[in-house]
Amino acid sequence: MGSTSQDIYINKQVFGDDFVWGVSAAALQIEGAFDAHGKGQSIWDVFSAKKGKILNGDLPHTSCDFYNEYKQDIDIVKQLNIPCFRFSISWPRILPNGSGEINQAGIDFYNRVINYCIEQGVEPWLTIYHWDLPQNLEIKGGWTNREIVDWFTNFATVCAQNFGDRVKHWMVMNEPGVFTGAGYFLGIHAPGRTGLKNFLPAIHHAVLCMAAGGKVLRELVPGAEIGTTFSCSYIEPHTDKPKDVAAAKRVDALLNRLFIEPVLGLGYPTEVAALKGIEKYKLPGDEELMKFDFDFIGVQNYTREIVKNSFFTPYVGASLVKAEKRGVPLTDMKWEVYPPSIYQMLKQFNGYPQIKKIYITENGAAFPDNVTDGEVDDPQRVAYLQQYLAQVLKARNEGLKVSGYFIWTLTDNFEWAEGYHPRFGLIYVDFETQQRIIKGSGHWYADFLSGN
Ligand code: FCB
């Protein structure tokens, strides 16, 4: 089914036969089974149990029970004609203490999932780390402890050795900017630490781990396509006053450049004064260890941010003008619906000649969904996806690198600090009964992907 959006006729064919289509998910958000069959605790199991950390006191303990329901969900991926399914490995499910003994039951679970995908003709795309650090490693300092480079190298090695014979598309990390920023600076995500003394070492060690993970995969999974993913938001100044423009540049460095540039060999964007302190965590030789020549970069975009100068905001001297105050269309996350953002970010990432290939590895929206007569009609989500896709197509037609698009996400799930409230899925989940209902957007994607 083609559709017209912003004067662009969109169907699958116009993206070309080699364009990759998929849907993304993450272990902690979908699996549940938080203590099943030898799994260790993750920082999210511990953080979510603390009072006031997660909206409504929601816990990820059961979620949509992908651990038990994976066949049903992969069947739906197939039914919706989605060629690729991106999901992540729970570190404490396969290494309960973070390092040391392997939990074979965890390995077996991912083997079942991977094998079932392949049997159904669905290509598994694996993310090694999507934020669920083993609690045992957090006790030892987590991302602030440089030893994490060894722990992570071992984790990546276990993944590569066990799944590399069948998985040919890998992402080392999901959005390091979010798990370090929200988890080690703002304290609003697990493990809930704050301040530059935690944030700066966490950044540097995450960068070293991205590169180390890439090297492990290249060595152990020959022929695999190896990438890593970054969050990004198009940044615009509130006014064209030089102070706002400068503030927007600082926020852009923090949100969009901080992790990609060191990986590309460009170093940290230390024009942001607060980031200068990162130098003290670097050891001689680190510049080399921070680099890796990824086969692709995963760009993940949802919205844009408007930035103004703010003398009183420490470290960055900038603040965001909230979308709620701007009278713009919002999703349930209170993120602005702003389709050109994805085009602008593709343009920005295309500005790095070192990047060989780009996939959009996440894009999607939460809207309030209701079940009426057994159906979930979600025209706002369909419109969002169509409009963002039109912008991806615009980029592609202009010759920018973009080789694929993955929707966030398959099923409604545990949305981190927001709990179960925001529903991002193409599939509605009743968390009491585990019943699934394919939403209108799921049917739309299926029609779109059928190419008719
Ligand atoms: C991204 C995360 C993903 C999900 C979406 C809504 O930042 O990678 O896990 O929470 O946002």
Task: Tell me what you see in this structure.
By secondary structure, this protein is of the alpha/beta class. Helix content is 36%, strand content 18%. It has 15 helices and 15 strands. It has helices at residues 27-30, 43-48, 66-79, 91-94, 104-119, 135-139, 148-163, 176-184, 196-220, 242-257, 260-263, 286-289, 340-350, 379-397, 440-450; strands at 3-5, 8-10, 20-24, 84-88, 123-129, 169-174, 225-237, 296-309, 318-320, 358-362, 371-372, 375-376, 404-408, 427-430, 435-438. The strands form four sheets. Strands 3, 4, 5, 6, 7, 8, 9, 10 and 13 form a nine-stranded mixed sheet that branches. β1 and β2 (8-10) form a beta hairpin. α3 packs parallel to α5 (104-119), α7 (148-163) packs parallel to α9 (196-220) and α8 (176-184) packs antiparallel against α9 (196-220). The chain is globular and about 55 Å long. It starts with a strand and ends with a helix. The relative contact order is 0.15.
What features would you highlight for this structure?
about 450 residues; 9-stranded mixed β-sheet; alpha/beta; disordered N terminus; binds beta-D-fucopyranose; globular; single chain; about 35% helix
Number of helices: 15
The best one-word shape is globular
% residues in beta strands: 15-25%
State the end-to-end distance. 5 Å
The level of helicity is: 25-40%
Structural class: alpha/beta
- Order of helices and strands, N to C? EEEHHHEHHEHHEHHEHHHEEHEEEHEEEH
Largest sheet: 9 strands, mixed
What is the number of E strands? 15
